[in-house]
From TrEMBL:
It comes from the Bacteria. SUPFAM superfamilies: Autotransporter. Residues 111-132 are annotated as: Disordered. This is Uncharacterized protein. InterPro entries: Autotransporte_beta_dom_sf. Residues 111-130 have a biased composition (Basic and acidic residues). Gene3D superfamilies: Autotransporter beta-domain.
Length: 468
């Protein structure tokens, strides 16, 4: 019964073509060079070709299997028609409600009445262009087989690209940095109580950067891959602030010294109010920061079919070199003097690191990414701090400090890949925290020294990746 019902799908639309001139001219299958002597069969095959090509282009296995099912069903219908060339099947098809051929409308009452009086013409007459209907049906079946055989589902869509891959990645970064900046100026009451760093500069700025990396992935087993990678990065930021005028409100103004042992005023300068003459104007702070460095790491690439994830644990080491160029200045018009601190610090950081990257494909062209990284930062900083105060020789001290701290980074993003190409584009957002900010501290009781404080980055990146 199923064969009898389904076979009508081939015949029902063919009736529309019986009015065409009877000739042996074949029907072209749209979009191909293949020809069939039956117009309706040609149209159905063209639909299947379009569905197969679309599924292959999108790496969509489900859509591809649906197109194969349509091809198999069409072959069944043709095979049934081959055995029942003269059997009227239109009414039984219309009762079947087959969704695959849903574009074929039911008969209206007049058409149904007419069909009751005449039988459906045999397959050969309906085609109106065939002198050997059974031979042509067999040919159409072979055409369908040829269409399917020449459009296999790509192996690259079935599984991730095989390892032994060389990967090159370049990217740009834009974001915000929060970097601790030391305060300046101080006050002293008549009773001798001192308050330092009463003026707090801004600590937030815009950071720009670029990076490049290369990686090589190779197979350890059928289900486990390994990779080694290395890269370079560079970025810079400027933190500028113009601070409000500062009034000691009757207390002494302290211009804290650098502690230069060769200066008679190593502890700094103390200016009495004299009715407000020690008011400070045009207080400014400017910090320019640069980072550059390199990293290497190695790890495993482990597809986890149970969760649909690819897990990549890794470990490595990074070397970062940073430079801080900072000046802080102000005017004291009541005394006709100005002051300016110039601070230069270079920091080298060696960071053993470890982490994991997670990737989940939600579409053949789209993958979601998560990453987590921890590092042990071994920091060594050197530099100088200089104070220029009108009417006195500059005083300067060398700076040197080292420390070890822990840093971490979290990231998320999306990767867009064009199927069957070697190129992908990714966008990511990253938050990074470390205690590598070199902050100068001045007390007037000892030489200026460095302490390490928070450096926080919130950045967005765009990366282009090429795989070979």
């Amino acid at each position: 019964m199923r064969n009898a019902v389904s076979s009508a799908a081939i015949l029902v639309s063919l009736i529309a073509f019986t009015a065409q001139a009877a000739s042996e001219e074949p029907f072209q299958i749209p979009g191909t060079y293949i020809q069939s002597t039956n117009a309706e069969t040609a149209r159905r095959i063209s639909w299947i070709i379009a569905d197969l090509d679309s599924a292959i282009a999108a790496c969509d296995r489900g859509a591809y299997d649906q197109a194969l099912a349509k091809a198999d069903e069409l072959k069944v219908l043709l095979a049934d028609a081959y055995e029942n060339v003269r059997e009227p099947l239109r009414r039984s098809y219309l009762r079947s409600n087959d969704p695959f051929w849903k574009d074929l409308r039911p008969l209206d009452e007049s058409e149904a009445a007419a069909e009751r009086e005449v039988s459906v013409p045999d397959y050969g007459d309906v085609r109106s262009r065939s002198s050997d209907p059974q031979g042509d049906i067999a040919l159409d079946i072979s055409i369908i087989d040829q269409v399917v055989e020449t459009r296999p589902f790509p192996q690259t869509c079935e599984t991730p690209p095989r390892p032994s891959l060389a990967i090159v990645d370049v990217g740009v970064t834009l974001g915000r940095v929060s970097y601790k900046v030391g305060g300046l100026l101080g006050t002293e009451t008549l009773a001798g109580a001192r308050t330092l760093n009463v003026v707090k500069p801004d600590e937030d700025g815009t950071v720009y950067g670029a990076s490049g990396s290369a990686a090589y992935m190779f197979a350890l087993s059928e289900f486990l891959n390994a990779f080694v990678a290395g890269g370079y990065f560079g970025s810079s930021a400027s933190i500028e602030s113009t601070l409000p005028d500062f009034d000691p409100a009757g207390d002494r103004l302290l211009i804290v010294g650098t502690g230069d042992p060769n200066s008679a005023n190593r502890s700094g300068f103390s200016l009495n109010s004299f009715g407000g003459l020690n008011r400070v104007t045009n207080v400014m702070s400017s910090s320019h920061l640069e980072w550059d460095g390199a990293w290497v790491k190695g790890g495993l690439d482990m597809p986890c079919e149970c969760l649909g994830l690819t897990v990549r644990p890794f470990a490595g080491v990074a070397f970062t070199r940073s430079r801080l160029e900072q000046y802080q200045s102000g005017n004291i018009p009541g005394f006709g003097r100005t002051f300016r601190y110039d601070t230069h610090v270079k920091t080298n950081t060696v960071s053993p690191l470890f982490g994991v990257d997670l990737s989940k494909s939600i579409h053949p062209m789209i993958a979601l990414n998560l990453s987590a990284l921890g590092s042990v930062d071994v920091i060594d900083a050197k530099g100088s701090d200089t104070l220029n105060f009108t009417g006195f020789n500059p005083q300067s001290v060398s700076l040197s400090e080292n420390d070890t701290s822990f840093g971490w980074r979290l990231g998320t993003g999306v990767t867009l890949t064009e199927p069957n190409t070697n190129m992908s584009l990714s966008f990511s957002a990253t938050y990074q925290h470390s205690k590598t900010a070199a902050v100068t501290e001045r007390t007037g009781l000892m030489p200026t020294h460095i302490r390490f404080d928070d450096a926080k980055f919130l950045t967005g990146s765009a990366n282009l990746r090429l795989t070979f």
